[in-house]
Amino acid sequence: MAMDETILLGAVAYDPKVVAIWEGIRDYFNNSEAAFDFVLFSNYERQVTALLAGHIDIAWNTPLAHVRVQHHTQGKSLSLGMRDADQDFHSRLIVRTDAGIQGPQDLAGKTLAVGSRDSTQARILPLHFLQQEGVDLKTVRLLSFDTDVGKHGDTGTSELDVLQALRNGDAQAGTIGDLIWVLEQSAGHIDTGLIQSVWTSPGFDHCMFDALPDLDPGKIARFTTALFGMTWENPEHRRLLELEGLKEWKPPREAGYDSLRAALADQGYPL
Fold it and tell me: CATH homologous superfamily for 91-200?
């Protein structure tokens, strides 16, 4: 295939494992007659800019970056696929057991630790959903951890900061994503005598492959055919799927981003 037929994908290097993931996927695509290469970015803002400028064909985007691309294309951008694990994410309200907080209704007068300002799961959406639960955020002191800004919460570092703030007693409550909560529990890092989860948010969706509406239909067809051709039953495919945290690639859906669009509008978040 000629170079101009190569699918060029952008991804953000939020962790060293990203290199291994996309090198493996590149090899799989190239062996599937879908010429493929990737470019790594240090942050999602730069990646979105590159996509909008036509410097890359497809971007592997967080929910915030996905909504931003849609905003800048007047809703005309193409959503190409997502992981099964990207569907029905949740955020958690975690509390110190000695804080007397049984749920969102008890947050008034408390210190609430939140993740990075660009983290969908650790700040933007939990604050939005808590307000829907009737929490007046003006009565709550927010303790913010703007860690790894630009990576949209992908590293999970700010969520670990939230957990540590509760352990230290710097906050009585905090918001983190369900994934970090489960992983930290599995690793034995949660003292359930000290910290517990008292509320789970409504579901929302996470990452998406985005493209501009004028992307060559042939590239779209080759990309989606190869992507959805990956199966858990194939050991080599499974290795790559496990690295990227999924069992099956799913067709895109948009309803799972409605709450994020509403939250960004309510919070005056710049797109």
Answer: Periplasmic binding protein-like II (3.40.190.10)
